[in-house]
Solute:Na+ symporter, SSS family
Amino acid sequence: MNSILNKLTLFDYIIVFAYLAALLLIGLLSSRKKAEGAGHFLANKSLSWYSIGFNMWATNVGPSMLLAFATVGYVTGMVAVNFDWYAFIFLFLLAVVFAPRYLASSVRTLPEFLGIRYGKQTQTILAWYSLVKMLISWLSLGLFAGGFLVRQILGIPMWQSVTFLVALAGLFAYTGGLKTVAKVNIFQMILLIVVSALLTGLGLSKIGGWGALVDQTPPDFWTLIRPASDPDYPWYAILLGYPVAAVAFFCTDQAMVQSVLGAKNLEQGQLGVNFIAWLKILSLPLFILPGIICSVLFPGLEDPSLAYMTMVTTLFPTGLNGLVIVVLIAVLVGTIGSSLNSLSTVFTMDIYLKRINPNADNKQIVQVGRYCIIAGCFIAVMMAIAIDQIKGLNLFDVFQSILGFIAPPLTAVFLLAVLWRRANKAAINTILTFGSVLSLGVGVCFLWVFPKDQYDFWPHYLMLSFYLFILLLFIGIIISLVIPPSNFEIGYGKNEVIVLERPVLKVKIAWLLLFITMIILYLIFS
């Protein structure tokens, strides 16, 4: 599908080149004052709430959001917005339970956080698993979605699409670290809101308004809670299975949490997490509605994954298609740039400095981080091509199921470590090793070896994630009760002096307003 390429005018090309020039200028200006050492990765602890919120949203959105949400909106309506609206509970958990502990510990990475309590071995194991998670869930999935869209626009092979895209996205993480990525992402996300709102507005106008859209769509398109008999999104699967991925995604993932670690203080971090929760409300009008509108304007698409590009190529007037290419570049740079920075942070801080060269100077630290970014780009391209071979699931379910199989060990480990003082090193390390092999092995079988479209014995992928989490949690509890803590843990318990800050009034009010808003939204659409 390359009709958008045929519609490009001189004005479109001017828009694209002007955007790229502005992006490069912002990146260069923000990276002139270079941070050294760890400051390169955490923006010298200088991020304000709006930078944190926009950067987390940019990391979360990615091209997969535009593509997958429009696809599932075309087929099933708004039910998939649960994956963004339901997230406010777990973002709240990050803000009030996890973030105070992370910032009070003055850690640079989440493996380092567990390493303080359980030792270097735990830190190293979690670091390697975090690297695998970021390569799969962030870099590879983001690149795949971006490459999928570029393939639709230009008609070029997947490997060419993802190679071009990752080269552009890696530039900002390579040159400026988190500070540059965060500043670029503010610009990116404002652009995304404008262009996506324009697309939704044009679609509603063509249909005849909101009332006409509701009248021409099935009633179940506008409900968040589906019956247990629903084959795609039964209520119990979302209620039980989604939290497993959400805790891992929002509370334990370096790519998401790194912006909070770079906050000026806890208040700014908590307000930044609150801000992204508000931004996630926009998923319905910006990402889901274009798919629903497309189901009315263009029913019977042979491939629902073409919904977004069908809307773009049909509704955007000649001369504005350059904006679409711009926003695709924007969301890709946002996700991949943040992910590459987080990947390099974990490898450099938790593996290189801890295991390979503890005496590295600031220059060596930054250089190793940049080498890691280059390596991450190559690996992500290979994995994106492999994901292109998955059959039997729509794009949205591919993304969510992959996250669901990566999540159980991380969710079990961090909930035990943060909420239960009895949890010990033996339990944590067992979950991170055996649990990771089990969870990823089941995921490989589900997606590639015995794919769901050929074998009907599988439960819903969200429930499969939930079952794995419960099993690993049970194993962790039993081991912690049976095996005594190590000498390192006993020493940590005696010397622990972390003092947790309480949320200030401003933070409490922000979260209270959000909870009220989300309850109202769920009552309206239930």
About this structure: Confidence is low (pLDDT under 50) at residues 35-41. The chain has 22 helices and no strands. The CA atoms of residues 97 and 419 lie 9 Å apart. The radius of gyration is 22 Å.
